[in-house]
Amino acid sequence: MAVTSTPGSGERTRPRFGGVGGARGIAGRLGAYQSGGLLVALVLLSVFFGFQSARFWTSSNLKVILLQVAVVGIVAVPGAMLVLCGYVDLSVGSVGVLAVAVFGQLVKVDHASVLVGVLGGLGVGTAWGLMNGFLISYLDFSPIVVTLGGYAGARGLAEALTHDVTQFGFGNSFDNLGNGTVLGVPLPGVIFIVVFLVGAYVWYVMPTGRHMTAVGANKVAARDLGVSVRRIPFLLYVLSGLAAALGGLIMTAELDSASLSIGVGLELQVLTAILLGGVAFSGGRGSLWGVLFGVLFVGVLYNGLVLVNVGPYYADLVVGIVLILAAGSDAFYRRLERLPVRVAEDREEEPTQPKPASPAQQGV
Fold first, then answer.
1. Is the pLDDT of residue 264 over 90?
2. What's the whole-number mean pLDDT along residues 291-317?
3. Residue 162 pLDDT
4. What pLDDT is recorded for position 344?
5. What global pTM score does this model have?
6. What does the alpha-carbon distance between residue 364 and residue 345 come to, in Å, rounded to a whole number?
7. Residue 346: which pLDDT band, with cuts at 50, 70 and 90?
8. Angle (deg, nearest 10), helices 187-204 and 59-84
9. pLDDT of res. 24
10. What number of other Cβ atoms are within 10 A of residue 360's Cβ?
11. Which tens digits make up the pLDDT trace of 73-118?
């Protein structure tokens, strides 16, 4: 007996995503455009300060801004990669001052050459990052607890090493690290640009960038796919320690002084730029271009408020408010992304009924 289906029966309408499903789409678009929105805000902020102060757009002031953001930007590149992986380094300021203390002791107390002192400072920062990476990546210690311990421990070790004595007068060759220029551009700014370009190549071109995102989004799934979920954050902590030491040495060269006040608050400035740039604190989402815009936004904000005679305390207040807004927007995106998807159908599926056979088919 032949059976034919009723026309239109058994066919499902194409599912449409509505309700909270649309909210997830909005969250994705907002996350994608966050760095672009920050760029627009940076441009508008620069235009505003340009109207408020005739000195803002001068070449000397722009060089000052580049000098102010260079160290934060250098440290923020590996820091953003760590946050993308779901980790954080809160010890960068203290590691930087420890590297400075070692440099000062080697050059001024042990009478080593400046080159040996620089290598010693960079080596200490790298070693501290290696320790952080091993404890966190391979022994599964808490990133916040370990790096908070480094925040206190590295600065305490620097104080014990120097006995709170500031070394200074390291010579013109070392001063060029902080005050030299390349084609009229401050050398720290050139170093920042090179570090950013290398970081952008790793983030956007190399498979490592996709692996970092995968680790931050779902470590178990990334491990099942063959991603090195331990080695990647380990290497990033080593690079973070190296970048912190380099930043500390640059600030020492700018001041010609190995002061223990170097690096105070660096952690907050770096984390502000990273979160403001749209890198999710929980990991798995972010843009290095957004981090660049975040670094520049904070630098322009500080510089512009000073030019319009706003005190540094108010500048810190404004930056704190901006950071809270950035954290709030990140929480908003994550909340939208967690909403379930509801599939709406135009009509229920009708059960398939066989068409009655004709008398001829019944053999009558």
1. no
2. 85
3. 87
4. 45
5. 0.81
6. 43
7. very low
8. 30
9. 46
10. 7
11. 999 999 999 999 999 999 999 999 999 999 999 998 888 999 999 9
Residue type, 89: D
d(CA 17, CA 24): 10
Top pLDDT among 81 and 281 is at 81
**Type of residue found at 247:** G
Judge whether 299 and 72 are in contact, CB under 8 Å.
yes
136: CB partners within 8 A, 6+ apart: 87, 142, 143, 146, 233, 234, 237
Cα 325 to Cα 25, 102, 239, 267, 328: the distances in Å are: 21, 38, 29, 18, 5
> Over 50: is that where the pLDDT of 9 sits?
no
Q: Are 50 and 56 in contact (CB under 8 A)?
A: yes
Where along the chain do its domains lie?
17-336
> Which structure tokens are listed for 359?
């008398």
Amino acid at 120: G
Instruction: Please tell me the distance from the alpha carbon of residue 258 to that of residue 249, in angstroms, as a whole number.
Output: 8
Cα distances (angstroms) measured from residue 94 to each of 3, 102, 270, 291 = 80, 12, 13, 22
Say yes or no to pLDDT of 335 above 80.
no
Cα 20 to the chain's mean position, in Å? 29
Q: What is the DSSP string of 43-94?
A: HHHHHHHHHH-TTTTSHHHHHHHHHHHHHHHHHHHHHHHHHHTT-----HHH
Instruction: Please tell me the distance from the alpha carbon of residue 15 to that of residue 262, in angstroms, as a whole number.
Output: 59
The whole-number pLDDT of residue 155 equals: 92
Residues 112, 115, 118, 122: what is their CA dihedral angle, to the nearest 10 degrees?
A: -110
| Cα separation, 243 vs 247, whole angstroms | 6
Tokens of 294: 């975040």
**CA end-to-end span of the chain:** 13
Band (pLDDT 50/70/90 cuts) for residue 263 is: confident
CA-angle at 339, arms to 334 and 344, nearest 5°: 145
Helices (H), the chain: 20-52, 59-84, 92-104, 114-133, 143-162, 172-179, 187-204, 207-217, 219-224, 231-255, 266-276, 288-307, 312-338
From 284, 280, 279, select the one nearest 294 (Cα to Cα).
279
More confident residue, 276 or 135: 135
Instruction: Considering the domain delimited by 17-336, tell me its CATH architecture.
Output: Orthogonal Bundle (1.10)
